[in-house]
Amino acid sequence: MTTSKVFTNWDDTHSALWGHQPIELAHEMHKSPLFSRDHLARLIENYPREHYSLVKTGARGSERVWREGDIGDLSGEQVIDAISRGGLWLNMRDVGAVDRRYREMLNGMFEEVGARVPGFSARDHQESILVSSPDAQVYYHFDLPGQALVQIAGRKRVFVYPDTAPFLTPTLLEDVAVYNVEVDIPYEPWYDRHAKVFDIGPGQMLNWQLNAPHRVENLDTFSVSMTVSYTNDTIRRAEIVNLGNGLLRHRFGYQPRSRNSRGPSYFAKAVLQKLLRDSRWVKRERNARRVIDFRLDANEPGRIVDLPKAA
Ligand SMILES: [Fe+2]
């Protein structure tokens, strides 16, 4: 018998489905004082620059926009106010490293999952807090690590797509492993007919199978959620194969044939990726794709100011 502090409706179907299909679960994490408005405001205004992304996206149905910016000299409360007016989201990445109480909360969550799903462990996890506008959306993408989306405040509609072609292909997996840019992958509106769709609010969370593409629309409410990435040996192996195959293809023009994550070709790729992962080539490719080009305006909540382009 395991005591439950995080999950309130876990049953045998969740144990059977975890990691294989998208599932919705009830949780208690939204009740933590760590998510009070005051606490979030303090967290925002003290958040290390290298750990957050502020993103401006287009309104739903309009042309696709993706710009990264800076909170400037706004207080946390002013940032929340600006975001609640529209068109923005703030991702406080790796919040568990900035304040370990968030990490401990997720340790507790994964302990409960491990007690209920035979063979599952999250050897490592990284959590982020996403604060987003009523009209914000996250475009179609997938993530390399395992994912859980924990809703704290406000409501979202989440579309989760199959992890098979045409929604997800080996080439897409490899490109994302190499470039670490998740949003530039093909999406067609008709994909939605093949998605599982969840409307989630405070106290609800989602998990889905590894790499399943997804996209998110806020349901006209200011939203706070926690996005959780986790990894274990199985996930790590898959990631190494994707990066190794991607590097072979991009760097050497070689079309990988094997997606086997065991045996000699796996180990050859593991060695290759070790040599190249931190190479200047990969880092240069990644940095070239992230440019900060606006900041928030303290005098006019919700307004953004363009930053001069770096030479
Ligand atoms: Fe994601």
What features would you highlight for this structure?
ten-stranded mixed β-sheet, Jelly Rolls, 9 helices, binds fe (ii) ion, 25% strand, four-stranded antiparallel β-sheet, 311 residues
Could you write a compact summary of the structure shown?
The protein is of the alpha+beta class.
Secondary structure layout plus pairing:
Layout: H1 12-17, E1 23-26, H2 37-45, E2 52-57, E3 66-70, H3 76-84, E4 88-92, H4 95-98, H5 100-116, E5 124-132, E6 137-141, E7 146-153, E8 156-160, H6 170-179, E9 196-200, E10 204-207, E11 214-218, E12 223-231, H7 233-252, H8 264-277, H9 280-288, E13 292-296, E14 304-306
Parallel strand pairs: 3-13
Antiparallel strand pairs: 1-10, 2-3, 2-4, 4-5, 5-12, 6-11, 7-10, 7-12, 8-9, 8-11, 13-14
Bound molecules: fe (ii) ion.
Characterization of this structure:
By secondary structure, the chain is α+β, with helices and mostly antiparallel strands. It has a single domain, classed as Sandwich (Jelly Rolls), CATH 2.60.120.650. It contains nine helices and 14 strands. A ten-stranded mixed beta sheet has the order 1-10-7-12-5-4-2-3-13-14. The protein has a four-stranded antiparallel beta sheet with strand order 6-11-8-9, with no helix packed on it. The structure holds fe (ii) ion.
Ligand set: fe (ii) ion
Helix content: 25-40%
- Helix/strand-derived category reads alpha+beta
| Main β-sheet description | 10 strands, mixed
Average pLDDT level = 87
Poorly predicted segments: none
Radius of gyration: 20 Å
Total number of beta strands: 14
CATH level-two architecture: Sandwich
Number of domains: 1
Give the CA-based shape: globular
How many helices in DSSP terms? Answer: 9
Order of helices and strands: HEHEEHEHHEEEEHEEEEHHHEE
In whole angstroms, the N-to-C terminal distance is 62 Å
**CATH homologous superfamily?**
Cupin
Strand content of the residues, in percent? 25-35%
- Write down the CATH class: Mainly Beta
What CATH calls the topology is Jelly Rolls
Q: What is the spatial order of strands in the main beta sheet?
A: 1-10-7-12-5-4-2-3-13-14
